[in-house]
Amino acid sequence: MNVPTVESFGERVLHPAVEELIDLVAELKQEGFNMVVDLTAVDYLSFTTRTDLPENVNPERFEVVISMINHQSRERLRLRVQIQEENPVVPSLFDLYPGTEAMEREVFDMFGINFSDHPDLTRILMPEDWVGHPLRKDFSVGQIPVQFKASKAKR
Amino acid sequence: MTSEVVETSSQALSAANNDDRVRLREGSAVLRISESDATSKSVNEITKTSDPSEETRMILNMGPSHPSTHGVLRLILELEGETVERSKPVIGYLHTGMEKTAETLSYTQGSTNVTRMDYASPLFTELAFSLAVEKLLEIEVPPRATWIRMLMCELNRISSHLLFQATNGMDLGAVSMMIYGWREREEVLRFFEKVTGLRMNHNYIRPGGVAVDLHDGWQADLRNLLEIIPPRLDEYDDLLTGQPLFQKRLQGVGSLNTSEALALSATGPILRSTGYDWDLRKDEPYLAYDQVDFDVIVGTHGDSFDRFAIRLNEVRESLRIVEQILDLMPPGNYRIQDKKITPPPRARIDESMEALIHHFKIFTEGFHVPPGEVYAAVESPRGELGCYLVSDGSSNPYRMHIRGPSFVNLQTLPHLMRGGLIADAVAVISSIDPIMGEVDR
Asked: B388 and B410, same structural domain?
């Protein structure tokens, strides 16, 4: 499959569209990439000046990053999928690689990106009734006001 | 037993030659219900049996604070008598948002944060983080720093595996093993304390090298370690490996085959116990692992006993590496001499204005890292530990993600426990050796 490819620190990085993802991963699996090592996401809300995308790839707010490995040829590659803010849905890789189940749940929990056809898309790290997705850039880290009792009164 | 669920489960078990068992959406070993359903729904609703007279199952919550769950792991177990059918690990009780915290800390402060993830092998997370930062900076650390990192990591692998021996023994009722494991681990931690100042959470491996050089007389301390530990390992062999009771508790308990382990992205001793030879130290040599001689230990049956034996023998291999490092340790700098990245020595600050400025800049603002994204992986005692880093050119990471081996390996748990007794479940949890700090991050 012909997807925009760049090289990053000796690793191949592919930039498929969301629609191409499942077909591409299935193809890579045929090629011998026998494990999805890591699946995570990045929220590019406040980093708009990035220049590492190929020309024909449209930057979106979210990006799902999938690291795969081929144990035979000892080759690693990374898929970076741009996800729209309005409709953050990615097809689940569960049927191809069941090991992505927990990682996709984590991305759902932390970024609010939905994985269609995932067997159990529930929060994994945050409490079930939690509102919001903590690793989004517009999610405030919050703070506890501290009063320094030892400080002197205003002069 | 005539219920549908049981039929599917026996079918699932008979297909154990490939990875069908872990691919099932329905009827797999994973009990895919939400936490609230687990408490509010009736057993019949969960097990999908309509006839109340067939209600022979029960749902049991084990943990999150249970002595055998290694911290705060909660398991929802579906039990048939005392046999575990389906189960679901519930995690997140130790979640402190360390990946979010990392975005507010500079690269200089970053290793202080990541070292608290896997508290049994903190140096590996520091290493993965530092390697990722160094890749982005495109710098190469001096050879001595590389070798010190390797030495410390191998010692950490020893201490981590000794901790496993201790907790594994404790979970199985071999309480004397617990004391022995901790006793030997303490010897290693004592060395760490001499080098880094701390027993745990060292913050020793930092971008650009390591924090301080090895202390005077480190060779003697190491030789002492190399003298103490091997005979004790032989004692463990006498105490556990050949002991019939111990074998009965572990052999054939919690089996997994290679394709299942690969499909579930399991790495480390779990993958190797299935007879699959994959160790990043050998297969993707980082640091200077291509210059030392060691063997990768693999198992045959993929059961809890193999995982125990692999870890015990990996200690021996690590000792072999440490012995070689003793002779091969090169002289030179223990960190890169780039004043933009590593702080100047304390004495220079009194003499040089530049040194003072660099020192001030590094500890207030930190150093800037060129924009880009990178993934660096190391072989931690639990498997592949990766760090995915995105930099926007500032002095804080834009995004820092740690691929925790325990987090991913924990997915194998329901598949390993199915069909076993609750007591076996305890043995299986122990043999996965999850560190909850890293699972929840």
From this structure: no
State the Cα–Cα distance between residues B425 and B76, nearest whole angstrom. Answer: 12
Beta strand segments in B8-73, E? 57-62
A148 touches chain B (CB under 8 A): no
pLDDT at B59: 83
Mutation to test the B interface, candidates A124, A129, A139, A143, most B Cβ within 10 Å: A124
ipTM of the shown complex? 0.89
> What distance in Å separates residue B186's CA from the closest CA in chain A?
32
**Chain segment B414-440, per-residue pLDDT in tens:** 999 888 888 888 889 889 888 888 898
How would DSSP label each residue in B197-248? S-SS----EETTEESSPPPTTHHHHHHHHHHHHHHHHHHHIIIIIT-HHHHH
Interface test with B, best of A14, A47, A129 (most B CBs within 10 A): A47
In this complex, do A11 and B375 lie within 8 Å of one another by their Cβ atoms?
yes
Average pLDDT over residues A146-152: 67
Domain A5-116, classified CATH 2.40.260.10, yes or no? no
- Residues B156 and B240 both lie in one domain: yes
Chain A residue with minimal CA distance to B372?
Answer: A52
Rounded alpha-carbon distances, angstroms, from residue B108 to B200, B422, B437: 19, 46, 22
Cα first-last separation, chain A: 72
**What does the pLDDT average to over B53-58?**
69
Q: What is the pLDDT of residue B16?
A: 41
B398 interfacial to chain A (CB closer than 8 Å): yes
The residue segments making up the domain with residue B75 are 1-93+405-441
